[in-house]
Amino acid sequence: MEAAGHKPVDPILVEVIGNRLQTVCREMLVSLIRAAFSTNIKERYDCGTGVFDIDGDQVALAAYPPLHMGGMRGIVRLLRAEYPPEEIRPGDMFITNDPYVGVSTHLPDPVLVAPVFFSDRLAGFVASVAHHADIGGRVPGGQAPDSRSIFEEGFRIPLVRLFADHKPVPDIHKILRTNVRNPDEREMDLRAQFAANFVGIRGYQEVCQRYGDEVVNGAGRAWVDYSEARLRDKLRQLPDIVCSHEERVENDLDDKPVTFRVTVQSKDGLLHADFEGTSRAFEGAKNIPLSATVATVWMVVKSMLDPQIPASEGAFRPLRVVAPPGTIVNPVPPSAVGERALSCQVLADVVMGAMSKLVPERALAECGPHHGINISGINPRTGRFFANHESFAGGMGARRTKDGVSACRVHIAGSANLPVEPLEAELPILIRRYDLRRDSGGPGRFRGGLGLRRDIEVRADEVRVTLRSERQMIPAFGIGGGAAGATGEFILNPDTDRETRLPIFVSNRRFARGDVISVRTPGGGGYGNPRERPRELVAQDVRSGYVSPAAARDIYGA
Amino acid sequence: MSKRPESSRSEYWVGIDIGGTFTDIVLYDAGKDEILAYKTPTPASTRAEAVLTGLRTALARHGAKGAEVVFLGHGTTVATNALLTREALPTAVLTTRGFGDVLEIRRQTRRNTFDYYADFPPPLVPRTDVAELDERMDAAGEVVVPLRRDEVAETLRSLVARGIRSVAVCFLHSYANPAHEREVGEIARACAPELLLSLSCDLVPEFREYERMSTTVINAFVRPAVSAYLSRLEEGVGQLGIEAPLVVVQGNGGLMSSETAKRQPVAMIRSGPAAGVAGAAFVADLAGQKRIITLDIGGTSADVSVFEGETPSVVRDWEVSTFPVKWTALDVRSIGAGGGSIAWVDSGGLLKVGPDSAGADPGPACYGRGGTRATVTDAHLVLGRIGPDAVLGDSLRVDSRRGYEAVGALAAQLGRPDQETAAGIIEIVNAAIAQEVHFICAEKGLNIRDYTLVAYGGAGPLHAAQVAEELGIGKVLVPYWPGLVCALGVLATVPKADFAMTHLVSLSPDEPAQADVIKGLFGELDLRAGNWLREQKIPSRAVRRSWSLDMRYRGQNYELAVDVPATDVRIDALVESFHRRHEEAYGYSSARGVVQCVHARLTIALEVDHPPLRQRQPVGGDLVAKGQRDVCLGRGHKVRPYPVYERDRIPGNSSFLGPAIIEQMDTTTLVLPGQRAQVDRWGNILLEFER
Hints:
heterodimer, A: alpha+beta, 5-stranded antiparallel beta sheet, 20 strands, globular, B: alpha+beta, Nucleotidyltransferase, domain 5, Dna Topoisomerase Vi A Subunit, Chain: A, domain 2, 5 domains, 6-stranded mixed beta sheet, 16 helices, 35 strands, 31% helix
């Protein structure tokens, strides 16, 4: 297999071709969302697409949750390491979902990668990733905090060829179908990923047709270099100081919190992030694969320093991440990783905490992470089995110049909620309330965003519920004198004489008709001394019901 | 309205379009069978007085009397402006207890996942003006918590006491049972008649509470301003002796009476670009082009829309300044690239264009009104596409020196020659527009090569030929009056409305009786359409109805529209059509999947008489260039002399070969080498490459 080379390209063409490849990526994403079946992909956009040059550098990314960049960026290098060039042919597509080979960030997110050929030679690659509703394993969906090894979390696929000559490889498909709960739906979602890659291949070829594959690769490389140069430029402007931040994290399986620790230093246009001092891996499923750890650092650094930098490999190059093997942030097999999204939220807070000392003008207090719920059972109206997965946002931390946003997905997560009305039309539940939690935002000169409360009444004889959380014992702390946000809670039958607090993690527990499960997500931390908050803003918060009169008096001194 | 204009007495059709920079008034004089145009700068805030002054002047200039006006159509930005400037009378929201924060929570997402400091704008109605009421319906429309009339009355009275004028009422599941919302409406009529109430069950009886509430709130928010504006306009129009009813353009490209507009002003948002699409469709039809992509380039943005087959694409869920709207509108996408867009070099050394714009004031550097940064217009000047003696807009002359200076400064920063920099600016803008069109076609699964690009707006015809070339589109149509397409659209379109309601039911071919359920839904929609029709004032020959159902597989959360013949609703045929539609749209269907009906829809359009709107009689004589100019086509192209033609001296029914520059009052058209320009008898130009 011959591969295209690079041609040096002028800055105007770099801008034109760089944007064009980004458009190819967007076209892939919209095709993926259009053709998918799972609600995760279709309604919550939990998916991503990428375009790569022949060196394996990701040139363009389209994704709502930034975490997917971590899931995809290593895929082409892995492919080239495992398959000799002559075995990569037009019409081939390869799949893996194994976080322990450096791509995908948990098993339900398979990555599908395809080579792009132009005039009979290799010209680049495209890839797609999507969160499938199931991937086999001990529990539906594959995500349970009490999974103790990756083997409980689902079917683990090493990098294998899934399509050859544009057609499914039947043996692999048979194995896959046999190991997942709803094979027809999985087939449809995989087909959507296939369709997205197909659109990407065609789009990339069109660009080559217009400019020549060597020019496209030259522009792609320049685009990646440009992203790198922009980030390095910002890094050089930072003071050369060493900043650390440490944070305890809840452990679902016992009461001993563990520690995240990071030390950052910006030196000579490089950002060093050293996780030395971080605890050994969890026994449960909140470990964060290295690919996700690096993506989290990238996301925080890019967001703080220059949000407009193209999401390409270039913005990763100046990052020097040291994550000791066997820790939460670089687990080794067979540690479970399914719930990495929750712990990643705290990890991002920790990185942000250290970075806020380096870049105080873009500081952000700690954020309230989301809480998750799975409900399944038999719907009495239809007599059929149902399963539903949702996550509810916490409050964003306050910022140097303004309050935190209430009930908002932060950091590496970006999925939308599901509207109440269609949910109630489909499922035997009634949402009693869905509103913001008074006094949950960390007090400060700028207030942390509020967490939310969602009370779910069971309207079936029996349902099974799994609840997942973060920051129910250790709150999101404030900065610069700002106070912590409220911790999250799961309450059963609130405001009745049967009211009880549920554990921070509930696995597949049975609830009966009339039970009300109240999910209350944590608020974000405050920024600055609350007594310096202008009176009129405190008064406005009281009138809006966001702050109680007692808190206004006692904490804000109003 | 008469079928054919009679020459014995004068009749005028009048279309008024308020654009960002200019207000256009077009009069069709039926007696003389000609179109008269009047252009005036749009004042900073939309005021009825300014429109009336313009209308009075336009009529006087052509010796038209108010009584001779038989049609008066209006496209206005008043609703959008009220929203963007957030200048409105105090507005309140009434909603179900426990759901008072829906507007604040939105969909839990961030505006930009990579920017912790980028927030959505605060809700139009602050939390302090949201009142929760005891009441609750479930999804089946059963009452879970009854409404308390005393609480409603007390709340309404307190709103009045606080100076609230307009109220949005949005209760959970009101699409399934509107009783509580309607009861609030009745109580308000009795105890607070001065309040303008917008009920979500009247506007959008569809599920998804946040989007429905947002739409209802937008309606309530702009309603007092729109009502006052239209009432004042009607009064002033009456004083001019005009008896023709005032009709208003909607975002769906159709018309509605001003009475309807005062009740549901949300329909007016996006009406400007929609009128343009209606005008472009009209001109294209005249020129024999059916499948079109519209390209409207103004000072700050380029608006594009792609027809699906021969009809404009519509969108049912969209956003206006980040607030979701659930309302049928034409699918027009905006790209931040217009004549005033500023070119700059970013921190990584790449040339960027927009999204910042010099707008109309100070405008591009070559306007000589204080702008110093290079814009797209300045780049055209340096490349010779705009002449050094061109007249811009309101009789403003080009200041070449300042245009060259601005581009020169940017070129020095980039380390490239002036001309290459200017060509780079155009290349980047054209690529951005082409990419958006390419993306829309990919999204909708359309084959771009079948299309004709219709270019209008001040800068559309300058870019169209190269955008089309980039996309592999063979034909470009430049209307005779590219600057008047929106105003012509007002005259060319028809009254139109869309109705929908949610009804979730699993369809089974084993239960043919379900057809009665569907027919029942259609019956209800038809009742609502009847009410709407009674509000319209335009005489029509007939009403066209099209019915459809939004359907999905159970387990999906998104729907596909399937057209339904109203006279013959059969469940097995519906299910079959859905499988086919799913296959078409997504490449697969699921024979074992349970098919659900989610929404029923009805679109009505009135058949009305139009003025013939012929723009121009053919001109005889030879084609004579008024001169020639050195033009650069782009990087890698040599500067070469192009003949320059004056648009209104080009004979009808003629054709000539590019390259060429065609100038007219408010636009310049670029014809590429190898392109043939066909001028039809209406003066429209069709550009096509010689094969």
